[in-house]
Structure formats: structure tokens, C-alpha cells
Amino acid sequence: MEFSGLTFVLTEDCNFRCSYCYQKRGRTRLDPGTAKRTFDLFRPFLGPECSVNFYGGEPLLAAGTMIDLVGHIRSRATARKTRITYSVATNGSLLTGDLLDFLDRHRFTVLLSFDGYAQDEARRRGSFGPTVAVLRELLARPRIKLETNSVFTPATVGRLYPSMRLIAETGAPQATISLANERPWGAASLEELRGQLSALRRFLRARYERTGALPVTNFLKPQGEGVFGCAAGQDRMALSPDGRLWGCYFYYDYAHKRGIRGG
Predict the structure, then answer these.
(1) CA distances in angstroms from 56 to 22, 84, 229, listed in the order given
(2) What is the pTM assigned to this prediction?
(3) Which one of 31, 81, 177, 203 has the fewest CB atoms closer than 10 angstroms to its CB?
């Protein structure tokens, strides 16, 4: 058995209160010693490539644990030659200069949660301007691989096209549209979604013809053919803040919200 992905859920806590968030918040944070021992447990079974991912809540509320664990990983020679890459999913509000230097030094992939012109309404009032500034700072560091994820609800879907246009025009290389599913979408909001996607499609087509770049992943043709099979628990694992192992951090999110305890 070889593992290609290890996710460390650093904390249940978050400094945002997004209207569509499906996670159950809490105060538990992952113990640094438990994180190190878990990596050491899986270290002999890592494949040729392994991604180490940091997730929350807002993981940068526990940035010290992330920094400590990366140092621990780099101090250990793996049982076999393994290329380890790092990623963090964050709202960007806690990205200081020192943290940006750390992410840059270790060539992190940063998944930035940014809802564009819906940001102040759906995520946190007053966070639009600072998040745009963080987006530009990340783009100015070529060793950091930037991805964005933007969530739209029936209430904010009218801002989808201008938001994704804004993100594309900043130069973000990879942007994803997600649709909130906590509440049902009515006929009117679905029709608005159709119009917004049509407008975005026209913009992206013109941009592609001009630049050859298509940054919104939802409009890309899927790679490969066949049926996708999730390998959660087979070649990837997730450690929750309470020190329990799960096949995938999505399992932890689902179980935590419903009071189910993991293994």
C-alpha cells in the first residue's frame, strides 16, 4: 500500500462566518505532537509523490502547527525516495508577510477562498478589498501555485459573472466556481445562473482566443475518460483536530456536523 495524500485538519475554528458554510465549528486544534507521530506512522508507506495538505476551519489560525510539521517532515528522510508537495486552503485573512515567505520558500499550493463581489455579503463584511490585495500578493510570488474557489448561492448568483471576470483579469491561473447546496435553488435563481454562465462563457471564449488561457476550471474538458473512483482511505488519509484518522477530510466534516466519531 502506498499513500499519495495526507491531510491535516489543523482546527475546527474559523474567523469567518460564511453564510453557506456546511462545517460545524468548534475550538479543538490538532496537537503538534500527534501530527508529527501520524506523519512518522505513514512515512514508510509513502508513494513516489505525496501531497501534504492543511485544512480547517481556517488552518492559519493554527499556522504554528503547520510550520512545525513542515519542519519535522523536512528533517526526516522518507523510507523511499518521495517528492512531497504542500498545500493549504485558506480565506487569506491571516496571510502576513512572514507566512507568505514561508509558503513561498516551500513552494506551497494555496487554495484561496474568494467569492469576488459576493465576498462582503456571503463571507465577511469588509473582506473584499483585503482579499483582492492578498490575491495580488500571492500572484507576485511565482513559486506559490495559486488556485481560487468562489462559492455562489441563490442570493449571490447575480454576481457570478463579474466576480469570475475580476478574478481572471487579475491573472489568477486556476479558478473554480462552486455552488452552495445548503438551500434549494428555485427556478428564478437557476435561470439567473444560466444567464451568468452564458455571459462568463462569452468572456472566457474571447479571452481564450486572445491569450490562449482558460483560467476557470469549470469550462475545461475533463482529463481522461471513464468512471472516476475515489481512493479515500486507500491511498490518502486525513487526521482530524481530535487526533482521529479518516479516509478523507470530507468524511470528518460530515461526521463532525452529525456528532459521529471516527476511528
Answers:
(1) 12, 20, 25
(2) 0.92
(3) 81
For residues 100 and 137, the answer to whether their CB atoms sit within 8 Å is yes
> Which amino acid is located at 214 in the chain?
L
- Letter string b/e over residues 14-39, b meaning 16 or more CB atoms within 10 A of that residue's CB: beeebbbbeeeeeebbbebebbbebb
Residue 149 phi, psi (nearest 5): -130, 130
Neighbouring residues of 232: CB distance < 8 A, sequence distance ≥ 6: 247, 248, 250, 251
pLDDT, greater one: 24 or 144? 144
CA 35 from centroid of its chain's CA atoms:
20
Considering the chain, what is the average pLDDT of its residues? 92
pLDDT digits (tens, 9 = 90+) for 150-189: 999 999 999 999 999 999 999 999 999 999 988 899 999 9
Q: How far apart, in whole angstroms, are the C-alpha atoms of residue 252 and residue 244?
A: 9
Beta strand pairing call for 236-239 and 175-179 = unpaired
